Amino acid sequence: MNRALALTVLLGGCAPASNDPVDVPMLDLAAFRCSVQPVLAKRCAFLACHGSALRPLRVYAPNRLRLGGEPTERDRPPSDVELEANYDRARALATGGPEEALLVRKPLDVTAGGLFHRGQEMFGGDDVFVSRDDPGYRLLVAWIEDEEHPPDDCVPTDEVGP
User: What is the CB neighbour count within 10 angstroms for residue 36?
Assistant: First the structure.
């Protein structure tokens, strides 16, 4: 029985990847800047994780990964280029709505319906979002559901969870 299960898992992992184009949603940029970027910056932008070019979600944030600049300027808000890069990467992981989007499923604890997230294994403790009630999780879901349309001059939130 164990042998059959191992073979099924092994062969299932050999399925060819789909090269079909995916429609990336056009989500609200102001909502991203004021609600999503603060969550990603505080809860995901660690250099050991999403500061790597090897990760699908690479996050630029103050005092974290930056696109050039002087070391004395690392604490400045994200540049327009950095913000656009973060926005595009987040949109690419927001396909399929909140039930399927990797942007919310990967950092959500498995016991709450999320997917395996290596950050919990690497750093111990809880996953990024322990439950669907987490303020940061709710902000990401609202953005993916296109519920929020703040003015372009909105102020980034500080309410992003622990």
Answer: 29
